[in-house]
Amino acid sequence: MPTRSHFDHELELMNIDLIKMGSMIEEAIAKSIKALEAGSKNLALEVIEDDSKVDDLEKAIERRCMRLLLRQQPVAKDLRAISTALKMITDIERIGDQAADIADLSLRFQNGLDVRVAEHIPQMARIAVEMVRDSIESFVKNDLDLARATMKRDDDADDLFNIVKNELIESIITSKENADEIIDCMMIAKYLERIGDHAVNICEWVVFYSTGLHKKTQIL
Q1: What secondary structure does DSSP assign to the chain, as a single string?
Q2: Which among 56, 114, 148, 202 would be 20 to 30 A from 16, CA to CA?
């Protein structure tokens, strides 16, 4: 196989692995919230156990990237593609960790999430999943418009987090007997907010990949 064709093939395999890793964490977020809502211990444990698969795939992508850097000596945009992937997998792996953390907290909710206490958490989770999916898709398709749109969605996630925070503060004042559960809900909401932040980080690296720039002020 000619050198350039081999390089392009390896890049394509890298993209496929990134898509797979992204799908895994999307599923992990959705499952962790489902476990929370249903009070499903088995589903929560499944998310926690599967986190090691995300870690393994991160290492595999990292090894592929390092082989490309050392053997192919890429230049210009090819080099940015590889360095972007290396940065992205760090954020993707952390998202997986946070989904596992949510699943771990869900084990404390034996009867599932009380929507009267935190009715907006499932909505936060939906936004988080969409942001993660779109951030990775923006890299694979080199879609700057999608990256920018995803970054702007973080404002919606932050606004919703503030609503959840205020609702939970009000709940802990009026329902002190549920204080532990309310604090756990606050932690879950914070993890979801952080997932949105990681999706933004991924989008910023997509912009770097496409333009060579990595500052919000230069792209918004």
Answers
A1: --HHHHHHHHHHHHHHHHHHHHHHHHHHHHHHHHHHHHT-HHHHHHHHHHHHHHHHHHHHHHHHHHHIIIII---HHHHHHHHHHHHHHHHHHHHHHHHHHHHHHHTT-TT---TTT-TTHHHHHHHHHHHHHHHHHHHHTT-HHHHHHHHHHHHHHHHHHHHHHHHHHHHHHH-GGGHHHHHHHHHHHHHHHHHHHHHHHHHHHHHHHHHS---GGGT-
A2: 148
